[in-house]
Amino acid sequence: MAAIATDEERAAVDAVAGLPDTGWEGGERSAGDLRVARAPRDRRTLLLPVLHSLQARIGWISEGGLNYACERLVVPPAEAYGVATFYAMFSVESQPSTVVHVCDDLACRINGGEAIAHRLEAELAEGAKVVRSPCLGMCEAAPAVLFQRAGAGAVSYVVAPADADHAAALARGERVHTPFGGLAPRHGGERLLRRVGAVDPASLHDYRAHDGYAALSRAIELGPDAVIQQVTDAKLLGRGGAAFPTGVKWRAVADQPAGPKFVVCNADESEPGTFKDRVIMEHDPFAVIEALTIAGYATGAEKGFLYVRGEYPRATHHLQQAIEQAREASLLGPDVMHAGFAFDIELRSGAGAYICGEETALFNSIEGRRGEPRNKPPFPVTHGLFGKPTAINNVETLINVLQILELGAAGYASLGTQGSTGTRLLCLSGHVEHPGVYEVEHGVTLGEAIELAGGVRGGAPLKAVMLGGAA
């Protein structure tokens, strides 16, 4: 396209893609470029991070900014435009630098979210853009509001529980205290939730003092095949909804002769009423990193991707900190734990697309394409991310692997029921006395789960229960 990027837009793109070496990849053309043609490598997988950088720095994605991104990444402008317009959190039209996302999904709507939306729409007609948002994953502290402010010091944060006066003051740029829901109440958290609230999520030292990385050490002692056998014997089923046996999936990827192989953590938790993975990522991020590392070790993958929904800025920040600290401690990198295997993790942030919770749509998103599901077969274990063998699990599934290696397959399988072993994280919100995440063994009844949360608020009679989100 003929549109030219501003210096600020170029800087936003270069912050992700690096500085261009030649005129053939978006740099200034030199005399040498007129004599030697250099085909730049396709770096389309960086398209989503580059679009995030433009949106955060400029506040929207202009034709000039998009054009420069396409030059740098070797992506046709029409296809890049298709990606930019696919996600709700990107704008290809000029808009105010402050965008306020007010959740109007079920938990927030019944706790005052609608009043906040009306108030902000009336007061902020010019100074900020107000968007009614799908579930922000803060159901235990509803109502929730997500603030995004573009510029050189771009910020993104969630306020929950929010009220109309406070939200309006924040949107106007006033310096006021920003509450966050804090720890959700929990029950039976001696396993998956045992470190939540007990460790500093920003401290690797604290995590290791609470048995962190003991599971990875155990995995290295056992070896890849034995780790997969432990997961298989424990009868761990996927916690993302399909309940597919995790050991079968990992074995299928490990047995593939072709490489490279990938492991992916699906943290695009966008089902309304679901926030368990967010609680783990915010309060026990090293557990997610350790579990994904074990998955890479067991399957023979040297690269992992952690895809977090864009509405989770706090979780994203904590995970990025954890990844950096793990690298510094040789718990990620070319020689993990000095055990002779390489594994590293790249963090990716979504941009507001419910469908990217579907595994193949998530692959397309990482690859820099529209987040649309692929046909199956072929299945991810043979043709997944970048067309290579891929094991993908959600946060809850992965952290169960830590328990299996600590308890042993038989010890883990003794929990729950014969067909559904282990514990589950249940999200209870809405009209209950104590909304939050509750850890229970499989076999608990719905009535027992509601009682754990204190029953119906105010002792009112139970009228209806929504199970498993809107879908």
Model description:
With 471 residues, the chain is α/β, with parallel strands linked by helices. It has helices spanning 7-17, 47-58, 63-73, 77-84, 106-109, 113-123, 164-171, 204-209, 214-222, 224-233, 246-254, 276-283, 285-299, 313-328, 359-366, 395-407, 409-413, 446-452, and strands at 98-103, 129-133, 145-149, 155-159, 262-267, 303-308, 344-349, 390-394, 423-428, 436-441. The protein has a four-stranded mixed β-sheet, covered by helices on one side. It has a four-stranded parallel β-sheet with strand order 7-6-5-8, sandwiched between helices. Strands 9-10 form a two-stranded antiparallel sheet. Strand 9 (423-428) and strand 10 (436-441) form a beta hairpin. The longest helix is centred in the last third of the chain and has 16 residues, at 313-328. The protein is globular and about 70 Å long. It starts with 6 loop residues before the first helix and ends in a 19-residue tail after the last helix. The model has no long low-confidence stretch (mean pLDDT 93).
